[in-house]
Amino acid sequence: MTPTDDSARWDAEAEAFDEAADHGLRDATVRAAWRSLLVSLLPPAPARVADLGCGSGSLSLLLAVEGHTVTGVDFSPAMVARAVAKADGRSDVRFVVGDAVSPPLDRASYDVVLCRHVLWALPDPAAALRRWIGLLAPGGRLVLVEGRWSTGAGLSAAETVALVEATGRPAELLRLPEPVYWGRDITDERYVVRS
Ligand SMILES: C[S@@+](CC[C@H](N)C(=O)[O-])C[C@H]1O[C@@H](n2cnc3c(N)ncnc32)[C@H](O)[C@@H]1O
Fold first, then answer.
1. Nearest-angstrom CA–CA distance, 165 and 161
2. Sheet holding 172-175: strands in order across?
3. Fewest beta carbons less than 10 Å away: which of 3, 5, 60, 192?
4. Which has the closest alpha carbon to 94: 134, 127, 124, 54?
5. Best mutation site among 49, 73, 75 for ligand 1, i.e. most ligand atoms within 8 A of its Cβ?
6. Any idea what DSSP says for residue 156?
7. Is the CB of 62 under 6 A from ligand 1?
8. How far apart, in whole angstroms, are the C-alpha atoms of residue 114 and residue 70?
């Protein structure tokens, strides 16, 4: 599949995307859990955050509300359109159509590169990570939310830790088995790696 094929597939997902509890964060308890998790992982606001593969922008918006300045990048125009609509003209968050593999963002300009559930799907995750590290300002951090899902897709925590450590950076793993993040019980492997 080419990136264009993939983005068309995600365009088709955009309309219903926010129906999943962890996507739309419509449930106050789920939303509060993600808020609390991300606040614990990010530097104090205001930080400059790049949300790569931002989807419908739920995490980007959550962080903008917390006082951060956020740029979301997604290659699906329909996802970006939803994110822009949800932002409702806020000036502290912007959304760009672009490829997360080579984000159209300035190097060394972000305090945080955040990515949830996208790294696993990229053709060369190691190369993408190296590019993302190049976006970070001195002292900046990576926050990677990933999983190995019951479908068999994804990256195990050990694989993601190894990918980060191969860049020469440390990796701090926090597992996320609690149903409050997902709106239901889960039995597969979900986690965040911070570096
Ligand atoms: C599972 S969704 C996650 C969305 C968002 N990160 C979240 O957690 O709510 C995956 C998103 O990544 C985007 N995506 C996948 N590959 C991408 C790429 N190479 N460049 C940019 N966006 C990509 C898709 O369009 C989709 O919006």
1. 6
2. 93-97, 69-74, 48-52, 110-116, 136-148, 189-194, 172-175
3. 5
4. 54
5. 75
6. -
7. no
8. 10
